[in-house]
Design goal:
The chain has 125 residues and is of the alpha+beta class. The chain contains 3 helices and 3 strands. Strand 1 and strand 2 form a beta hairpin. Helix 1 packs antiparallel against helix 2. The chain is elongated.
Length: 125
């Protein structure tokens, strides 16, 4: 099997299951440096996307990148959870279908903080 390592990309994406670059409709495990021999059937897609395929090779690290909106999202999730919730949902939409992303964690933190705020308000009454 061909080695599809991405040493020229700089930052390597995290280990995980990604679309198989050689067999459409399947996923292959990326160990953080190279593709392994482990593969599985890809999960069925809920809907088709209009974005074109990005090509073959190593998965991109864009979905796990920590940029300014990610940091602001986490801060807002704790201080102003409604804003954090919106930022998390936007971030989830940016990286749909590309593996783990910070958007879902920002949403989770926002919801947890909202629940804690409600509990604090109810218990103080």
């Amino acid at each position: 099997m061909t080695d599809h390592s991405a040493s020229s990309l700089g930052e390597q994406p995290p280990a995980g299951w990604y679309p198989d670059p050689e067999r459409p409709g399947e996923q292959r495990y990326w160990d953080g440096a190279t593709w392994t021999e482990h593969s599985q059937a890809a999960a069925p897609r809920a809907r088709a996307t209009s974005s074109p395929a990005t090509g073959y090779g190593a998965p991109t690290a864009d979905s796990t990148r920590v940029d300014a909106t990610t940091i602001i999202g986490y801060i807002c999730a704790v201080i102003i959870p409604i804003v954090g919730l919106v930022l998390g949902l936007v971030k989830m939409g940016q990286y749909r279908g590309q593996g783990t992303n910070h958007g879902q964690w920002i949403v989770l933190v926002s919801v947890a903080v909202i629940v804690l705020y409600v509990i604090a308000i109810v218990s103080s009454s």
